[in-house]
Amino acid sequence: MATPLPQEPRAPLRLVRGGVAAEVSPPRAPMPSFDDSELLRAMNAGDVGAATAFHDRIRPQVDRTLYRLLGRRDSDHEDLAQLALIELVYTIERFRGDCSLDSWVSTITAHVAYKQLRRRKTERRIFSGAEPESVMPASVRGHGPQVIARDLMVRVTRLLDEMDEAKSWTYMLHDVAGYDLKEIAQITGVSVAAAQTRLVRGRKELQERIQSDPELAAYMSEMEGAS
């Protein structure tokens, strides 16, 4: 019995258009789908295949955090996002699931932004890209004409810019961006007690500065009374 000849490997499928043959690449294998716990286990195990999925999962939260802190027109956004992604990869083994993945990503991203920008006069930039009502304390949001709100925003921002950076950052992170004291302690690298002290003192100093400006104090009092 004759030995069968070895078969040539099958060539990729070819489409013919107008008499010209074109090779068709085989379809790419879909990326594996992970839930958060599986994704974290894969990353901690050094699974290279999980890296893209991890990036796609956390990048939107990184962007949302930077938008919340710096507005949508900040020129440093992309650089800060890349630094945050690097920090998240390097510190992922420290995440123990005490909070949601989104919360952890937001805290780490804010920490990166704080480290990179704290030596600059950042409060003016933090508020410059945001809408007026998004940066006002909750007690005065949603009241009064937008022009008044914008004027108040600018004037309060100037007061924050004159304050000690640690206190103004703590006030901004807590009362404007909505981080709790534990998260602020992680972002700023201090104890929870120190963060609380900074917040109390920051609020007090800001109120004193507002009261020293009779017109601004009257505006704030009127808006708080309407809340």
Structure commentary:
The chain has 227 residues and is mainly alpha-helical. The protein folds into two domains: 35-117, Rna Polymerase Sigma Factor, Chain: A (Orthogonal Bundle), CATH 1.10.1740; 122-227, Arc Repressor Mutant, subunit A (Orthogonal Bundle), CATH 1.10.10. The chain is 63% helix and 4% strand. It has eleven helices and two strands. The protein has helices at residues 36-44, 51-70, 77-91, 101-117, 122-128, 132-135, 146-162, 165-176, 181-188, 192-211, 214-226; strands spanning 14-17, 20-23. A two-stranded antiparallel sheet has the order 1-2. Strand 1 and strand 2 form a beta hairpin. Helix 3 packs across helix 4 (101-117) and helix 4 crosses helix 9 (181-188). The chain is elongated. The termini are far apart. The relative contact order is 0.08.
Quick summary of this structure?
The protein is mostly helical.
